[in-house]
What we know:
Blueprint: H1 2-21, E1 32-37, E2 44-49, H2 56-62, H3 67-86, E3 89-91, E4 99-102, E5 106-109, E6 114-116, H4 149-161, H5 186-195, H6 207-221
Antiparallel strand pairs: 1-2, 3-6, 4-5
Helix pairs in contact: 3-4, 3-6, 4-5, 5-6
Amino acid sequence: KKYFEDRAKELVKESEVLQQLARNEGFFAYDGYQIVPNEEGAGYDLYILSRYRRSLERQFLKKPITHLEALNLGLDMCAALTACRRSGYLYVDLKPENIYLFGDQEYRIGDLGFVKLDSLKYNSMPGKYISRYTAPEVLDPLATLNDTVDIYSIGLVLYQVYNNGELPFEGHASAEEYPTPVNADYEIAEIIMKAIASDPKDRWQTPIEMGQALVAYMQRNGAHDTPIVPIYTQETPVTEIVADESEPVEEPPAE
């Protein structure tokens, strides 16, 4: 009973952190929550009340994301993660299901997943927050957290945005095995691949650094509000771009 009571208190504390961060831009708060003892046995039930919000996961299914939306997503997440760190917490459950569209082109985090920054070296990754977007080095139950796991997650989310909505693997793999996102130009690809580097020391070390790289990209290249589509290069076979002119083309019958 004491174990489940402590876990319930942890969730309450995280909910309070979310409420606090939601006073600024970058986060969505719940409208309300309640924890009650489980009537059928040990433990507690957590009830969360929230208005309907369209998640990034649902947006993937609804329509293609534009270049401007993708860059806004990256910048909004970097700003939110920076605000989270300034409050003394690291957000460790960043994934499309927890990112919500606010207005037309603003994205916010709207779920639990907070760990105190000053306790990272004493904490392993909470099992309830492990996902396909979790940095591979913390999957070992004996491994402790580091302060680039949020960078890895945002990099993988952007990878998916620029890769036809698909991740580069099934399950977890080493970042050296990842191909670059199929729809990213070389500059965006470099920003993303640095974020998901296998060695935490090779990643962007703070969300501010990654955000600055995205801003510099926008200053050099601008951002157009058109859907992200495959980028054809000189290495792309011509037959994939134009019809094979060696084949005869049948004329439509005369009317």
